[in-house]
Design goal:
With 91 residues, the protein is mainly alpha-helical. The protein is built from three helices and two strands.
């Protein structure tokens, strides 16, 4: 049976993750509050931010920045985007 959560990003019950995606409290919170769909979308945005802003994940400030952006994304708050990025047209 598929596990569901009330997703903080979408405000409705959606398929949840199979296991916490990160260790510790952040992973547990994501597991309990974030849908699989929202997590996958965040991963794509996170990859774009890392690449476009040339973030080094060994840098504690970069990790802190990404964590802040992640929680803003899951709360439907404004998040940074890659400068000049235009989302592809679905047509």
């Amino acid at each position: 049976m598929t596990r569901t959560v009330v997703c903080s990003r979408y405000g409705k019950e959606l398929e949840g993750l199979e296991k916490p995606p990160l260790p510790g409290p952040n992973g547990e919170r994501i597991f309990n509050e974030v849908s699989k769909q929202a997590w996958e979308e965040w991963q794509a945005l996170q990859t774009m931010l890392i690449n476009e802003k040339h973030l080094k994940l060994i840098d504690p400030d970069a990790r802190k920045y990404l964590t802040e952006q992640m929680w803003r994304y899951f709360a439907n708050e404004e998040v940074d985007r890659a400068e000049g990025y235009v989302a592809p047209d679905d047509n």
